[in-house]
Design goal:
Blueprint lengths: L1 E5 L6 H16 L3 E6 L9 E3 L4 H16 L27 H5 L2 E4 L9 H9 L4 E4 L37 H12 L6 E5 L2 H9 L8 E3 L14 H6 L10 E8 L7 H14 L6 E7 L12 E5 L4 H10 L2 E4 L8 H8 L4 E4 L14 E4 L4 H12 L4 H16 L1 H16 L1
Parallel strand pairs: 1-2, 1-4, 2-3, 4-5, 5-6, 6-7, 8-9, 8-11, 9-10, 11-12, 12-13
Amino acid sequence: MKVALLSTYHLNGGAGVAATRLHRALQKAGADSSLVVEQVARPEPGVFGLADNLLDRKWATARFALDRLSFVPYEKDKSVRFHFSPATIGANLSHHPAILEADILHLHWTNFGFLSLDGLRKLVRLGKPIFWTLHDQWAFTGGCHYTRGCTRFLTQCGQCPYLRKPGPNDLSARVFAQKAAILKPDTNLHIVTPSRWMAQEAESSQLLEWFPVSTIPNTLDQSVFRPIDKQAALSRFGLTDLNQPRLLFGSFNTTDPRKGFQYFADALTLLHEQYPDLKPEILVFGKGQIDTMSALPYPIRQLGVLTNDAEIVAAYNAADALVVPSLEDNLPNTILESLSCGTPVVGFRTGGIPEMIRHFQTGYLADVSSAQKLANGLVFILKHPDPTQLRQNARSFAETHYSEENVAKKHIELYQRVKG
């Protein structure tokens, strides 16, 4: 049985990284897996890129640009430009050799000029079983990747808050109708969600209510993401003081409001006021510069974009906790990575995050949008009497829930059950 995974990105972005990690886990488990992406970041067995020469790379860039430009006339403002995808532009993947040879197609995150709605229709017409891992909510909305509390996807979209001119027949309503015409009840489609929260969202949606849903978490190589010597981790970033407490914040895009950095900043202000004896250093990694960072009451060390696993592993091991104040999230790779490195996590009780953090055991769950509760979580970490136990709990939880062997096995069993 051959399976072809489809993902816009290879080693970029949370969804692209998750798809690549699943591909590797499937191969280790003996599955005949291939991964089709827009552009291969670096050569890897079974990974095929559409843009493998200069001309194709130019076409890929053009598709991305046209896809984003197609939304510009409709966007509410520039802040939402990358939060809504009409999916009018994409490559025709139905003729790709890996897809034609596959017995099963497994979609991941396929936006930004990789797979259009018309391209999705062509894949459905191939008649192969299709699995679709939902890394965000786009599959069942009229175009947004996260709904920000909007519930119109439960019936049909329209009056979209992302649009300049929302109305009953706006762009979101039209995209929603296009998806409904493709995802008919008899479509051979099986939904996979990394979190139970996303499963509940999909099952309640008008577009996906017809289809079976399975929840299987993301995975990673736990021989790579593991606890390492703390002094070695610190030295990679020029840090030396083993006794200095450190808190880590990281994201693919640190300036994305959905990632909630402002709540972290407010929590640090409260921590400084209420517990002046606590003096943590703040480590930040990811793309983007946060304007308010200089106003924080503690020293900041910007680690920038971490380009390899060794750097990422060192960052987690250098910290006493990862802080994830996301307002909406599915099953964040950062939490998965942190726990695997034995680093506890403080986060908001939202989306799939409560499925990853065991309150008081592997970290702390704070009420959503409460800077005070988040500050309480920081105190829990910084004043914990047995941080070694917290770290052991975190690693043990990750080994039980996110190992490559377990996650690959669950996928293979699902493929076999559906394929028959």
